[in-house]
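Lab meeting, item 3. Inverse folding demo.
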Protein backbone atom coordinates (compact mmCIF):
# COMPACT_ATOMS: atom_id res chain seq x y z
CA UNK A 1 0.00 0.00 0.00
CA UNK A 2 1.24 3.47 -0.86
CA UNK A 3 2.17 5.72 2.04
CA UNK A 4 2.58 9.43 1.75
CA UNK A 5 4.03 12.10 3.96
CA UNK A 6 1.85 15.18 4.30
CA UNK A 7 1.72 18.40 6.18
CA UNK A 8 -1.23 19.26 8.31
CA UNK A 9 -3.09 20.79 5.35
CA UNK A 10 -1.75 19.01 2.19
CA UNK A 11 -0.59 15.72 0.58
CA UNK A 12 2.97 15.20 -0.77
CA UNK A 13 1.72 14.67 -4.34
CA UNK A 14 5.09 13.74 -6.05
CA UNK A 15 5.83 11.12 -3.40
CA UNK A 16 2.34 9.64 -3.57
CA UNK A 17 2.33 9.56 -7.39
CA UNK A 18 5.77 7.92 -7.42
CA UNK A 19 4.59 5.12 -5.11
CA UNK A 20 1.41 4.59 -7.08
CA UNK A 21 3.34 4.43 -10.38
CA UNK A 22 5.75 1.89 -8.91
CA UNK A 23 2.75 -0.37 -8.31
CA UNK A 24 1.32 0.32 -11.77
CA UNK A 25 4.67 -0.49 -13.44
CA UNK A 26 4.98 -3.99 -11.99
CA UNK A 27 3.60 -5.65 -15.17
CA UNK A 28 6.18 -3.72 -17.23
CA UNK A 29 8.97 -4.80 -14.91
CA UNK A 30 7.91 -8.43 -15.31
CA UNK A 31 7.90 -8.07 -19.10
CA UNK A 32 11.34 -6.45 -19.06
CA UNK A 33 12.62 -9.38 -17.01
CA UNK A 34 11.25 -11.76 -19.62
CA UNK A 35 12.88 -9.76 -22.45
CA UNK A 36 16.20 -9.85 -20.62
CA UNK A 37 15.98 -13.61 -20.10
CA UNK A 38 15.14 -14.14 -23.79
CA UNK A 39 18.07 -11.96 -24.84
CA UNK A 40 20.29 -14.15 -22.67
CA UNK A 41 18.92 -17.19 -24.53
CA UNK A 42 19.89 -15.59 -27.85
CA UNK A 43 23.37 -14.85 -26.52
CA UNK A 44 23.75 -18.47 -25.43
CA UNK A 45 22.61 -19.70 -28.83
CA UNK A 46 25.19 -17.39 -30.42
CA UNK A 47 27.90 -18.94 -28.26
CA UNK A 48 26.78 -22.42 -29.27
CA UNK A 49 26.71 -21.39 -32.92
CA UNK A 50 30.32 -20.22 -32.69
CA UNK A 51 31.35 -23.51 -31.07
CA UNK A 52 29.60 -25.56 -33.75
CA UNK A 53 31.41 -23.50 -36.38
CA UNK A 54 34.75 -24.12 -34.63
CA UNK A 55 33.99 -27.84 -34.43
CA UNK A 56 33.17 -27.92 -38.15
CA UNK A 57 36.46 -26.17 -38.99
CA UNK A 58 38.31 -28.80 -36.95
CA UNK A 59 36.47 -31.56 -38.83
CA UNK A 60 37.41 -30.07 -42.18
CA UNK A 61 41.04 -29.62 -41.14
CA UNK A 62 41.21 -33.25 -40.04
CA UNK A 63 39.81 -34.37 -43.41
CA UNK A 64 42.37 -32.22 -45.23
CA UNK A 65 45.28 -33.45 -43.14
CA UNK A 66 44.27 -37.08 -43.66
CA UNK A 67 45.09 -36.46 -47.32
CA UNK A 68 48.35 -34.64 -46.53
CA UNK A 69 51.98 -35.62 -46.95
CA UNK A 70 55.22 -34.24 -45.56
CA UNK A 71 58.31 -33.78 -47.74
CA UNK A 72 61.61 -33.86 -45.84
CA UNK A 73 65.00 -32.87 -47.18
CA UNK A 74 68.15 -34.58 -45.88
CA UNK A 75 69.88 -31.17 -46.14
CA UNK A 76 67.67 -28.07 -46.14
CA UNK A 77 70.65 -25.89 -47.07
CA UNK A 78 70.63 -27.63 -50.50
CA UNK A 79 66.86 -27.78 -51.04
CA UNK A 80 63.55 -27.61 -49.21
CA UNK A 81 60.31 -29.27 -50.27
CA UNK A 82 56.58 -29.31 -49.67
CA UNK A 83 53.96 -31.84 -50.74
CA UNK A 84 50.24 -31.83 -51.44
CA UNK A 85 47.61 -34.56 -51.44
CA UNK A 86 48.34 -35.68 -55.03
CA UNK A 87 51.79 -37.09 -54.23
CA UNK A 88 52.71 -40.58 -53.09
CA UNK A 89 55.09 -41.81 -50.43
CA UNK A 90 58.64 -42.45 -51.61
CA UNK A 91 62.34 -41.66 -51.35
CA UNK A 92 64.21 -39.71 -54.03
CA UNK A 93 67.89 -38.97 -54.67
CA UNK A 94 68.70 -35.44 -55.88
CA UNK A 95 71.84 -33.96 -57.44
CA UNK A 96 71.83 -30.20 -58.10
CA UNK A 97 74.47 -29.14 -60.65
CA UNK A 98 73.23 -25.64 -61.55
CA UNK A 99 71.05 -23.01 -59.91
CA UNK A 100 68.81 -20.83 -62.02
CA UNK A 101 70.11 -17.29 -62.12
CA UNK A 102 69.08 -13.98 -63.61
CA UNK A 103 71.11 -12.26 -66.30
CA UNK A 104 72.78 -8.97 -65.37
CA UNK A 105 73.86 -6.27 -67.85
CA UNK A 106 75.76 -3.10 -66.91
CA UNK A 107 76.24 0.10 -68.94
CA UNK A 108 79.28 2.36 -69.00
CA UNK A 109 79.52 4.87 -66.16
CA UNK A 110 78.03 8.38 -66.38
CA UNK A 111 79.02 11.54 -64.55
CA UNK A 112 75.40 12.23 -63.42
CA UNK A 113 72.14 10.34 -63.17
CA UNK A 114 69.98 13.48 -63.51
CA UNK A 115 71.57 15.33 -66.47
CA UNK A 116 69.95 14.69 -69.86
CA UNK A 117 71.77 12.21 -72.11
CA UNK A 118 69.58 11.88 -75.22
CA UNK A 119 69.04 14.58 -77.83
CA UNK A 120 66.06 13.04 -79.64
CA UNK A 121 63.19 10.67 -78.94
CA UNK A 122 64.24 7.10 -79.74
CA UNK A 123 62.76 3.61 -79.84
CA UNK A 124 64.89 0.91 -78.22
CA UNK A 125 64.14 -2.72 -79.05
CA UNK A 126 64.65 -5.17 -76.18
CA UNK A 127 64.63 -8.82 -77.19
CA UNK A 128 63.96 -10.99 -74.15
CA UNK A 129 64.18 -14.63 -75.10
CA UNK A 130 62.36 -14.63 -78.42
CA UNK A 131 60.02 -11.68 -77.69
CA UNK A 132 60.92 -8.19 -78.92
CA UNK A 133 59.40 -5.02 -77.44
CA UNK A 134 60.00 -1.38 -78.28
CA UNK A 135 60.56 1.05 -75.42
CA UNK A 136 60.31 4.78 -76.14
CA UNK A 137 63.01 7.00 -74.59
CA UNK A 138 62.20 10.74 -74.73
CA UNK A 139 64.61 13.45 -75.85
CA UNK A 140 66.59 14.94 -72.97
CA UNK A 141 66.14 11.80 -70.85
CA UNK A 142 68.52 11.36 -67.91
CA UNK A 143 69.76 8.05 -66.55
CA UNK A 144 66.88 8.16 -64.05
CA UNK A 145 64.36 8.80 -66.87
CA UNK A 146 65.74 5.88 -68.89
CA UNK A 147 65.45 3.64 -65.84
CA UNK A 148 61.82 4.70 -65.31
CA UNK A 149 60.89 4.12 -68.97
CA UNK A 150 62.35 0.58 -68.96
CA UNK A 151 60.64 -0.38 -65.69
CA UNK A 152 57.29 1.02 -66.87
CA UNK A 153 57.41 -1.13 -70.02
CA UNK A 154 56.91 -4.43 -68.10
CA UNK A 155 59.09 -6.45 -70.47
CA UNK A 156 60.60 -8.71 -67.81
CA UNK A 157 63.67 -6.52 -67.33
CA UNK A 158 64.36 -4.47 -64.19
CA UNK A 159 66.51 -1.35 -64.44
CA UNK A 160 68.46 0.11 -61.53
CA UNK A 161 71.24 2.68 -61.10
CA UNK A 162 74.40 1.63 -59.30
CA UNK A 163 77.01 4.05 -57.96
CA UNK A 164 80.35 2.26 -58.26
CA UNK A 165 82.20 4.94 -56.28
CA UNK A 166 84.58 5.95 -59.04
CA UNK A 167 85.70 9.57 -59.15
CA UNK A 168 84.57 10.65 -62.61
CA UNK A 169 81.75 8.44 -63.92
CA UNK A 170 80.21 6.51 -61.02
CA UNK A 171 76.58 6.19 -62.19
CA UNK A 172 75.95 2.96 -64.08
CA UNK A 173 72.65 1.67 -65.46
CA UNK A 174 72.18 -2.01 -64.55
CA UNK A 175 69.60 -4.35 -66.09
CA UNK A 176 68.52 -7.71 -64.68
CA UNK A 177 66.17 -10.26 -66.20
CA UNK A 178 64.06 -12.97 -64.60
CA UNK A 179 65.84 -16.22 -63.79
CA UNK A 180 66.45 -18.75 -66.53
CA UNK A 181 68.09 -18.84 -69.93
CA UNK A 182 64.81 -18.29 -71.77
CA UNK A 183 64.20 -15.04 -69.84
CA UNK A 184 67.60 -13.49 -70.64
CA UNK A 185 68.03 -10.42 -72.88
CA UNK A 186 69.40 -11.61 -76.22
CA UNK A 187 69.87 -8.15 -77.71
CA UNK A 188 69.23 -4.42 -77.21
CA UNK A 189 69.17 -2.25 -80.32
CA UNK A 190 68.39 1.41 -80.92
CA UNK A 191 66.26 1.66 -84.04
CA UNK A 192 67.65 3.39 -87.13
CA UNK A 193 67.63 7.15 -86.77
CA UNK A 194 67.68 6.92 -82.99
CA UNK A 195 69.87 8.92 -80.66
CA UNK A 196 73.58 8.02 -80.91
CA UNK A 197 74.17 8.75 -77.22
CA UNK A 198 71.46 6.23 -76.33
CA UNK A 199 72.98 3.69 -78.67
CA UNK A 200 76.37 4.20 -77.03
CA UNK A 201 74.74 3.61 -73.62
CA UNK A 202 72.38 0.66 -74.21
CA UNK A 203 73.40 -1.31 -77.30
CA UNK A 204 73.96 -4.98 -76.53
CA UNK A 205 74.81 -7.84 -78.88
CA UNK A 206 76.11 -10.99 -77.20
CA UNK A 207 77.85 -12.10 -80.40
CA UNK A 208 79.98 -8.96 -80.24
CA UNK A 209 80.15 -8.14 -76.52
CA UNK A 210 82.78 -10.17 -74.75
CA UNK A 211 82.22 -11.19 -71.08
CA UNK A 212 84.72 -8.52 -69.99
CA UNK A 213 84.70 -5.99 -72.85
CA UNK A 214 86.82 -2.92 -73.35
CA UNK A 215 85.38 0.29 -71.87
CA UNK A 216 84.21 1.44 -75.28
CA UNK A 217 81.67 -1.39 -75.58
CA UNK A 218 78.28 -0.07 -74.30
CA UNK A 219 76.22 -2.65 -72.35
CA UNK A 220 78.12 -5.65 -70.97
CA UNK A 221 76.98 -8.89 -69.44
CA UNK A 222 78.36 -9.46 -65.95
CA UNK A 223 76.19 -12.48 -65.06
CA UNK A 224 74.73 -14.86 -67.64
CA UNK A 225 71.17 -16.10 -67.25
CA UNK A 226 70.92 -19.84 -66.79
CA UNK A 227 68.46 -22.60 -65.97
CA UNK A 228 68.62 -24.80 -62.90
CA UNK A 229 69.89 -28.31 -63.62
CA UNK A 230 69.39 -31.33 -61.39
CA UNK A 231 68.74 -35.03 -61.47
CA UNK A 232 65.99 -36.87 -59.58
CA UNK A 233 66.77 -40.58 -59.25
CA UNK A 234 69.15 -40.10 -62.17
CA UNK A 235 66.63 -38.36 -64.43
CA UNK A 236 67.90 -35.00 -65.76
CA UNK A 237 65.61 -31.99 -65.12
CA UNK A 238 66.02 -28.33 -66.06
CA UNK A 239 64.02 -25.35 -64.85
CA UNK A 240 64.02 -21.61 -65.45
CA UNK A 241 63.29 -21.16 -61.75
CA UNK A 242 64.83 -22.52 -58.56
CA UNK A 243 61.28 -23.35 -57.44
CA UNK A 244 60.35 -26.52 -59.28
CA UNK A 245 56.89 -28.10 -59.48
CA UNK A 246 55.96 -31.18 -61.46
CA UNK A 247 59.32 -32.93 -61.37
CA UNK A 248 57.89 -35.15 -58.63
CA UNK A 249 54.11 -35.46 -58.56
CA UNK A 250 52.59 -33.26 -55.88
CA UNK A 251 55.97 -31.99 -54.64
CA UNK A 252 57.42 -28.46 -54.86
CA UNK A 253 61.21 -28.21 -54.63
CA UNK A 254 63.10 -25.03 -53.77
CA UNK A 255 66.79 -25.23 -54.69
CA UNK A 256 69.29 -23.33 -52.53
CA UNK A 257 72.78 -24.51 -53.51
CA UNK A 258 74.69 -27.16 -55.49
CA UNK A 259 75.28 -30.65 -54.17
CA UNK A 260 78.65 -32.30 -53.68
CA UNK A 261 77.04 -35.60 -52.78
CA UNK A 262 73.44 -36.70 -53.48
CA UNK A 263 70.76 -35.35 -51.16
CA UNK A 264 67.65 -37.30 -50.24
CA UNK A 265 63.98 -36.31 -50.36
CA UNK A 266 61.58 -38.39 -48.28
CA UNK A 267 57.82 -38.13 -48.85
CA UNK A 268 55.59 -39.69 -46.19
CA UNK A 269 52.13 -39.32 -44.72
CA UNK A 270 52.06 -36.27 -42.44
CA UNK A 271 51.05 -38.15 -39.29
CA UNK A 272 52.11 -35.25 -37.05
CA UNK A 273 49.61 -32.94 -38.75
CA UNK A 274 46.94 -35.65 -38.51
CA UNK A 275 47.54 -36.03 -34.77
CA UNK A 276 47.33 -32.25 -34.30
CA UNK A 277 44.08 -32.14 -36.27
CA UNK A 278 42.64 -35.09 -34.31
CA UNK A 279 43.49 -33.32 -31.03
CA UNK A 280 41.70 -30.19 -32.27
CA UNK A 281 38.71 -32.35 -33.29
CA UNK A 282 38.52 -33.69 -29.73
CA UNK A 283 39.06 -30.32 -28.06
CA UNK A 284 36.47 -28.44 -30.12
CA UNK A 285 33.91 -31.19 -29.60
CA UNK A 286 34.50 -31.10 -25.85
CA UNK A 287 34.07 -27.32 -25.77
CA UNK A 288 30.78 -27.65 -27.66
CA UNK A 289 29.50 -30.58 -25.57
CA UNK A 290 30.30 -28.80 -22.28
CA UNK A 291 28.42 -25.67 -23.33
CA UNK A 292 25.41 -27.63 -24.59
CA UNK A 293 25.28 -29.40 -21.24
CA UNK A 294 25.87 -26.41 -18.97
CA UNK A 295 23.60 -23.97 -20.80
CA UNK A 296 20.65 -26.39 -20.81
CA UNK A 297 20.97 -27.51 -17.17
CA UNK A 298 17.91 -27.34 -14.91
CA UNK A 299 18.01 -25.51 -11.61
CA UNK A 300 18.65 -27.23 -8.30
CA UNK A 301 18.16 -26.35 -4.68
CA UNK A 302 21.52 -24.61 -4.70
CA UNK A 303 21.80 -23.28 -8.26
CA UNK A 304 19.60 -21.40 -10.70
CA UNK A 305 18.47 -22.89 -13.99
CA UNK A 306 20.71 -22.16 -17.00
CA UNK A 307 19.61 -19.77 -19.74
CA UNK A 308 18.54 -22.61 -22.07
CA UNK A 309 17.22 -25.01 -19.42
CA UNK A 310 14.92 -27.53 -21.05
CA UNK A 311 15.31 -25.90 -24.48
CA UNK A 312 14.08 -28.37 -27.10
CA UNK A 313 16.52 -27.28 -29.80
CA UNK A 314 19.53 -27.80 -27.55
CA UNK A 315 18.28 -31.20 -26.41
CA UNK A 316 17.79 -32.19 -30.06
CA UNK A 317 21.35 -31.12 -30.93
CA UNK A 318 22.70 -33.25 -28.10
CA UNK A 319 20.58 -36.23 -29.19
CA UNK A 320 21.73 -35.87 -32.80
CA UNK A 321 25.40 -35.79 -31.81
CA UNK A 322 24.99 -38.87 -29.63
CA UNK A 323 23.26 -40.62 -32.52
CA UNK A 324 26.16 -39.92 -34.89
CA UNK A 325 28.85 -41.04 -32.46
CA UNK A 326 26.91 -44.18 -31.53
CA UNK A 327 26.34 -45.21 -35.16
CA UNK A 328 29.34 -47.10 -36.60
CA UNK A 329 30.84 -46.28 -39.98
CA UNK A 330 30.96 -48.84 -42.76
CA UNK A 331 34.36 -50.53 -42.84
CA UNK A 332 36.50 -50.13 -45.95
CA UNK A 333 36.97 -53.09 -48.24
CA UNK A 334 39.41 -55.33 -46.40
CA UNK A 335 39.30 -53.01 -43.36
CA UNK A 336 38.02 -53.49 -39.83
CA UNK A 337 37.60 -49.96 -38.45
CA UNK A 338 34.02 -48.87 -37.73
CA UNK A 339 34.23 -46.89 -34.46
CA UNK A 340 36.33 -43.99 -33.22
CA UNK A 341 37.33 -46.03 -30.18
CA UNK A 342 39.36 -48.28 -32.47
CA UNK A 343 41.62 -45.34 -33.42
CA UNK A 344 42.02 -43.98 -29.90
CA UNK A 345 39.14 -41.49 -29.70
CA UNK A 346 36.86 -42.54 -26.84
CA UNK A 347 34.20 -41.08 -24.56
CA UNK A 348 34.90 -40.44 -20.89
CA UNK A 349 32.46 -40.64 -17.99
CA UNK A 350 31.55 -36.94 -18.22
CA UNK A 351 30.62 -37.21 -21.90
CA UNK A 352 33.78 -35.62 -23.29
CA UNK A 353 36.20 -37.21 -25.76
CA UNK A 354 39.79 -38.28 -25.14
CA UNK A 355 42.52 -38.94 -27.73
CA UNK A 356 45.10 -41.71 -27.47
CA UNK A 357 47.69 -40.59 -30.06
CA UNK A 358 49.75 -43.78 -29.79
CA UNK A 359 46.71 -45.88 -30.71
CA UNK A 360 45.90 -43.56 -33.63
CA UNK A 361 49.49 -43.81 -34.90
CA UNK A 362 49.43 -47.57 -34.57
CA UNK A 363 46.30 -47.87 -36.69
CA UNK A 364 47.70 -45.49 -39.32
CA UNK A 365 50.82 -47.65 -39.53
CA UNK A 366 48.75 -50.81 -39.94
CA UNK A 367 46.30 -49.65 -42.60
CA UNK A 368 46.12 -45.95 -43.35
CA UNK A 369 43.35 -46.28 -45.92
CA UNK A 370 41.17 -47.95 -43.26
CA UNK A 371 41.70 -44.98 -40.92
CA UNK A 372 40.99 -42.54 -43.75
CA UNK A 373 37.77 -44.41 -44.59
CA UNK A 374 36.63 -44.27 -40.95
CA UNK A 375 36.58 -40.48 -41.15
CA UNK A 376 36.07 -39.43 -44.76
CA UNK A 377 33.90 -42.09 -46.42
CA UNK A 378 30.19 -41.50 -47.05
CA UNK A 379 29.39 -43.06 -43.66
CA UNK A 380 32.58 -41.76 -42.00
CA UNK A 381 32.39 -39.75 -38.80
CA UNK A 382 33.86 -36.56 -40.28
CA UNK A 383 31.44 -36.71 -43.18
CA UNK A 384 28.37 -37.12 -40.99
CA UNK A 385 29.50 -34.60 -38.37
CA UNK A 386 30.30 -32.05 -41.07
CA UNK A 387 26.83 -32.54 -42.56
CA UNK A 388 25.29 -32.14 -39.10
CA UNK A 389 27.23 -28.92 -38.47
CA UNK A 390 26.15 -27.45 -41.79
CA UNK A 391 22.52 -28.32 -41.05
CA UNK A 392 22.60 -26.81 -37.55
CA UNK A 393 24.25 -23.58 -38.74
CA UNK A 394 22.23 -23.08 -41.93
CA UNK A 395 19.30 -20.71 -42.37
CA UNK A 396 16.30 -22.72 -41.26
CA UNK A 397 18.51 -24.92 -39.09
CA UNK A 398 18.02 -25.55 -35.39
CA UNK A 399 19.89 -22.45 -34.17
CA UNK A 400 18.45 -19.92 -36.60
CA UNK A 401 14.91 -21.28 -36.21
CA UNK A 402 15.09 -21.13 -32.41
CA UNK A 403 16.66 -17.67 -32.51
CA UNK A 404 13.93 -16.42 -34.83
CA UNK A 405 11.25 -17.79 -32.50
CA UNK A 406 12.81 -16.07 -29.49
CA UNK A 407 13.11 -12.78 -31.38
CA UNK A 408 9.39 -12.96 -32.18
CA UNK A 409 8.65 -13.36 -28.47
CA UNK A 410 10.89 -10.41 -27.64
CA UNK A 411 9.13 -8.30 -30.25
CA UNK A 412 5.75 -9.23 -28.80
CA UNK A 413 6.86 -8.37 -25.27
CA UNK A 414 8.32 -5.05 -26.39
CA UNK A 415 5.06 -4.15 -28.10
CA UNK A 416 3.21 -4.89 -24.85
CA UNK A 417 5.73 -2.76 -22.96
CA UNK A 418 5.23 0.15 -25.40
CA UNK A 419 1.47 0.01 -24.90
CA UNK A 420 1.80 -0.12 -21.14
CA UNK A 421 4.33 2.74 -21.15
CA UNK A 422 1.78 4.89 -22.99
CA UNK A 423 -0.79 3.99 -20.32
CA UNK A 424 1.71 4.85 -17.59
CA UNK A 425 2.07 8.37 -18.97
CA UNK A 426 -1.69 8.80 -18.88
CA UNK A 427 -2.00 7.42 -15.35
CA UNK A 428 0.82 9.60 -14.05
CA UNK A 429 -0.87 12.72 -15.38
CA UNK A 430 -4.22 11.57 -14.03
CA UNK A 431 -2.85 10.83 -10.55
CA UNK A 432 -0.95 14.11 -10.45
CA UNK A 433 -4.02 16.09 -11.48
CA UNK A 434 -6.35 14.23 -9.09
CA UNK A 435 -4.16 14.62 -6.01
CA UNK A 436 -3.20 18.17 -6.83
CA UNK A 437 -6.90 19.02 -7.01
CA UNK A 438 -7.43 17.14 -3.77
CA UNK A 439 -4.73 19.26 -2.17
CA UNK A 440 -6.59 22.36 -3.34
CA UNK A 441 -9.82 21.03 -1.89
CA UNK A 442 -8.16 20.18 1.42
CA UNK A 443 -6.57 23.62 1.59
CA UNK A 444 -9.97 25.18 0.88
CA UNK A 445 -11.59 23.08 3.60
CA UNK A 446 -8.84 24.01 6.01
CA UNK A 447 -9.33 27.69 5.28
CA UNK A 448 -13.11 27.35 5.75
CA UNK A 449 -12.61 25.52 9.02
CA UNK A 450 -10.26 28.19 10.27
CA UNK A 451 -12.71 30.92 9.33
CA UNK A 452 -15.65 29.21 11.05
CA UNK A 453 -13.58 28.54 14.14
CA UNK A 454 -12.49 32.14 14.36
CA UNK A 455 -16.09 33.33 13.94
CA UNK A 456 -17.31 30.94 16.58
CA UNK A 457 -14.80 32.13 19.13
CA UNK A 458 -15.42 35.75 18.18
CA UNK A 459 -19.15 35.37 18.90
CA UNK A 460 -18.51 33.64 22.19
CA UNK A 461 -16.20 36.38 23.46
CA UNK A 462 -18.81 39.01 22.65
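The presenter then showed the designed sequence:
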Amino acid sequence: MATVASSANSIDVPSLVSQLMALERQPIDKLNTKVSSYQTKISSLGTISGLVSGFQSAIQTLNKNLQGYSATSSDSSIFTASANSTTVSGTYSLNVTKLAQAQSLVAAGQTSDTVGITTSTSAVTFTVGTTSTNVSIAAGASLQDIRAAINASNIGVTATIVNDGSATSPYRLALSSETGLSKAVSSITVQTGGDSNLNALLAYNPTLNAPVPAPAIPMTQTIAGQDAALTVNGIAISSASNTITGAIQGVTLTLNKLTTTPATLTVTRDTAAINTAAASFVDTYNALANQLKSRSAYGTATSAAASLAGDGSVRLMMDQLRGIFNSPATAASGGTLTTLYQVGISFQADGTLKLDSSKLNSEMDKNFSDVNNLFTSATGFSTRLNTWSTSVLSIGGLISTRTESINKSIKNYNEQIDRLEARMEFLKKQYTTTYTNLNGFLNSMSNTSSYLTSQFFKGTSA
